[in-house]
Amino acid sequence: MIAIRFQDALTHLYRWACERLYAEWAWSYDWVSWLVSFGRWSTWRRTALRTVAPLDPAHPPLRILELGFGTGHLLADLARAGHHVYGLDRSAVMPLIAARTLARAQTIAPCVQGQGQRMPFADQSFDVIVTTFPAPFLLEEATLRECARLLSAPSTARTALTPTALGGQMVVVGLWVTLSPRWLGRWLPFFYGDPSDELMTMLRQRFAAAGFTVTDTTHTDRPFAVGSIIAHFVQ
Q1: Among 50, 117, 126, 53, CA closest to 87
Q2: What pTM value is reported for the model?
Q3: pLDDT per residue over 116-141, tens digit each?
Q4: Strands 224-233, 212-221: parallel, antiparallel or unpaired by DSSP?
């Protein structure tokens, strides 16, 4: 019983600290991300860039929305790649920090504060929606339904990686991270470990209910493995 209460207390503390990183501690977000990833955070984040980049350089730029853009580094990477990029984050602080990141990168990506469950964009506004290391609200049923509303319909999808029979795609990077050998991950249980079967089943059901088909994929960055989901909108 004491062990369970201690674990619950640690979980509560972890969630509280995460919330602070999007508010009064936002200035430390990049430093903390670098620390918990042993310096690999930017490499893992760019997995999303490689996933959505067109295979054909002549392909039209993609309309991309990043949910939970944080300090804006992926927004800058996507904009530099030539895409039409927008960002939405529920934090009131992150748009200010991201603006500085984008200015340093000499790129433009409109950023707005808002809730994933009710986004201020028109239907079928985007070809790709990307989120990295998502907070729980980004995978709620209401958020996924909003993502489906915003993505291209199957007949109008424009992504180079999407067959014409499918619609736009949602890319979720960093849903889980494992560390090899796996016993090392026990020292940082909040950051490393395989998702439970129950969690994956729940997520697949939520994506399916919102009209997506789901493919799991893993990016190997030894000694780490970063798990991601690519979901195509089909209805």
Answers
A1: 126
A2: 0.84
A3: 899 999 999 999 999 998 887 788 89
A4: antiparallel
* Cβ neighbours for 135, distance < 8 A, ≥ 6 positions apart: 18, 68
Task: Tell me if 187 is assigned to some domain.
Answer: yes
Query: For residues 107, 131, 59 and 214, what is the CA-based torsion angle, rounded to 10 degrees?
Result: 180
Residue length, the chain? 235
How many domains does the chain fold into?
A: 1
Question: Any idea what the CATH number is for the domain that residue 153 is in?
Answer: 3.40.50.150
Nearest to 74 by CA among 26, 28, 42: 42
Q: Is residue 39 part of a domain?
A: yes
Assigned domain for 153 exists: yes
Range of the domain at 229: 27-233
Query: By the 8 A CB rule, do 21 and 91 touch?
Result: no
The answer to whether residue 2 is domain-embedded is no
What sign for the dihedral angle of Cα 114, 91, 144, 228?
positive
Among residues 51, 38, 125, 141, which one has the least CA distance to residue 88?
125
For residue range 190-221, what is the model confidence (pLDDT) as tens digits?
A: 566 777 888 889 889 999 999 999 988 888 88
Number of other CB atoms surrounding residue 187 within 10 Å? 9
Residue of 157, 195, 172 lying closest to 116 (CA atoms): 172
